[in-house]
From TrEMBL:
UniProt organism field: Phaseolus vulgaris
Keywords linked to the UniProt accession: Glycosyltransferase, Transferase
Family: Belongs to the UDP-glycosyltransferase family.
Keyword Glycosyltransferase: yes
Gene3D superfamilies: Glycogen Phosphorylase B
Enzyme nomenclature, EC number: 2.4.1.-
Protein name: Glycosyltransferase
Amino acid sequence: MKAESHDQLNVLFLPYPTPGHMIPMVVTARLFAKHGVSVTIIATQANALTFQKAIDRDFSCGYHIRTQVIPFPADQVGLPDGVENIKDSTTPEMLGQISHGISMLKDQIELLFQDLQPDCIVTDVCYPWTVESAAKLGIPRLFFYSSSYFSNCVSHSIRKHRPHESLVSDTHKFTIPGLPQRIEMTPPQVAEWERTKNETTGYFDAMFESETESYGALYNSFHELESVYEQLHQSALGIKSWTIGPVSSWVNKDDGQKTNRGHKEDLEQEPQWLNWLNSKQNESVLYVCFGSLMRLPHAQLVELAHGLEHSGHSFIWVIRKKDGNENEDSFLQEFEKKMKENKKGFIIWNWAPQLLILDHPAIGGMVTHCGWNSILESVSAGLPMITWPMFAEQFYNEKLLVDVLKIGVPVGAKENKFWTSLGEDAAVGREEIVKVVVLLMGSSQESKEMRNRARKLSDAAKRTIEEGGHSYNNLTQLIDELKSLKISKALAG
Ligand code: UDP
């Protein structure tokens, strides 16, 4: 490893432990290191294990990057060892315990900030208190926002104007004020804490307040995807931001990196899903995945299984299992066996190497819950999507895909509900599923046009991270700006 020069920029990254936040932030940290910055990532043990291989590899290539591990207070919050990530929560109580454990790390982290004396901290938007830590140290805090500009603009408008409150019925639509395009929603699609004030509203208010007090924001998005909303974000919220995405395709260039990302186990040498996909025609397989947190209710799994089967199209489906439901187990085992026999479907249990799968030529589209990372990964692969939002800002992202970018077919999801508080019913029936799968995977003009638009965005996604591209320039300009700040501070001191 090269020796660290004393004028080298030293940046500390603090990711929030949920895959949708941590994966892109760790990748961003690696990107900074690849651009000559000395990088430290703070994480608890079980979380660090999910990305440490990539860090070791970068380090052995000569980059200044390391992980600073801190202990998670599992005992104190009553959790078993190793349960340190939001994705491990299956009930509201567990979610509360994990979140509490994360909040207890504050003092340890502040001490680390003081010890390590970084020139800048990049912290997840979910750590509003780091604004004050940065102020105490006299350094900039950048916050990492892991969703779209569009969703942040919508959320800001809804919190400011509360347009859903003037409607007499939940089935009526309202228009989101202040957007350059007419975007309509129904009240139940609004994020729970924005729809009505509840115990989490205060937490989110603090987060949004801290945004305006920060030096600026890092967005894992790209100019060509949502520049109108990047501008609106600047004018309406007044927050300086740098668009540096899609970070995942920028850093994870080879298959090994794509495989291990966000997961500690190695991929088998010749994975069965790969052999299965290799036997399929180009663009003939639908990839179905609801992100890292969602476990569908049994009734919904049944509807989806029937919908996929009756659509007549081939599919790969990632299912996160619920423990101890025998009905579910026997239904899914039966379904898996049948799909193996007729070669129509392949099930991956719990965790799939999503980047690798999306890049396979046999994949022709994705069913997504509209998590921002999955959207970016599908766009990068040039794939149109069936949109099936579940919770948080996913319904806003759906609007971006369907109404703005026109690369998404909505399945018709109606209600925004956290994954830990879902009931036992199916929100979407098999007939709707068949309809949208046939539309997306068929050869209609509508589907061809969506596919073409998705391909163009994929080309733009590739260009933006190459030397001279928007995202590339934004990152290098930001690093230069942070270096200038460091120099001015040294001269002033
Ligand atoms: N992911 C994956 N394999 C899985 C499930 C998820 O690699 O089986 C990754 C996915 O590629 C994405 C992240 O986990 O990078 C999920 O983030 P997203 O914003 O899409 O959704 P969330 O999990 O936050 O709801």
